[in-house]
Batch of 2 targets.
Target 1
Amino acid sequence: MKMRRLFLIFIYSINICFAFSQSEKQYKIHTVAFYNLENLFDYEDDPYTFDDDRTPEGKDHWTEELYSAKLANMAKVISEIGSDITGTTPTIIGVCEIENRRVLEDLLNQEPLLLSNYGIVHFDSPDRRGIDVALLYKKRVFTPSNYKAFELLIFDNEDLSKRIYTRDQLLVSGTLEDEMIHLIINHWPSRRGGEERSRPKRLKAAALNRKIIDSLFSDNPYAKIITMGDLNDDPIYPSIKKVLNAKGNKTNLQIKQLYNPMEKLYKKGEGTLAYRDGWNLFDQIILSSEFIKNDYSSYRFYKAGIFNKRYLTTPKGKYKGYPFRSFTNGYTGGYSDHFPVFIYLIKEKN
């Protein structure tokens, strides 16, 4: 009897707190996610990029069979992000480490994603490895109206005439149902050569990101902006705390400010990738203050999370508990060296 009473209290609490079906208030809900797909390359040689390793004859012996297995794994993960609450696939997904549009089309033709009818926004970037960022969206609920790739200009510290080619930052503006939102997809420069030495590159990436955001605020101080990506810095680093000026506390946010819900997760010890027995939370979703209000007459931020289901972690060995990456001295059958991140946006139904 006691267990039954506790169960009824639990169910009643869910209805009061989120009110999806039986309570007085009902809400629409959408998942917005970001996922680093860890070198999702096709198996054909592109003469214009450094993809020789990811070919059947290359170092990785990357065959059509392995490519198909990787696609199936990526599709499974994406299809499940946020589904515990929404019961469906994400509405919007930012992705990085993809070779070209073809791999996205092949990904979306996988069975777990096919019926979601996703659209693609993608530009080829000048990155020397040939990897890009992109946006995937459900056509029935999100309609892009404008999109643009912003070039990140970085030069070698020792030879200022030598450009370092890296990923563009992708801005997509459109309507989520009938509400205008702006989405920026990022993959900032890596920590190759060490965090300190590579830091100026990420500071420049953050400055470009801030410039894009400020241009959107200049048109509308109440703009709903989401910037997301693999930033290669944790939420407390200067690129995010100082340049973006993203706040880790949503209390008393002012107009045109940014809130980073990932900072709270990071301070709790959570992460999206692991290195030398330590966790980093490089994958982040940051929102403008217009999303952080208690008036749910339009879409607002509800909750953030890291999608780190057990099957996404390495099951045994030296890296047990780390993200189960797809390639380590050969194909592993795993997924990615990053966990995906996500947020929920909710809106009260009329």
Target 2
Amino acid sequence: MRYAVRKFALSFAFAVASAAAALSAGGGATAQTQGDSLQEFMAANPDCLEFNDQCSFCAVVNGVAECSTPQIACVKRENQCTKRASK
């Protein structure tokens, strides 16, 4: 019985490590693309103070977007401005 438990634990640990390695290897390109689209959105909407993509909620502070971590179960959409600077 102990052998079976150890074998299962080792297999599980290997599977988790493999999944983590695969996710971290591909994360760089996605993060770069998201950063580029964020900068493009801010350049196209200079008066936008708060926006979201239904996953992360962002506020522009001193010209820099400060965003929350993505929600667990969300469907990412295009950024939508939710608060604009008053004129």
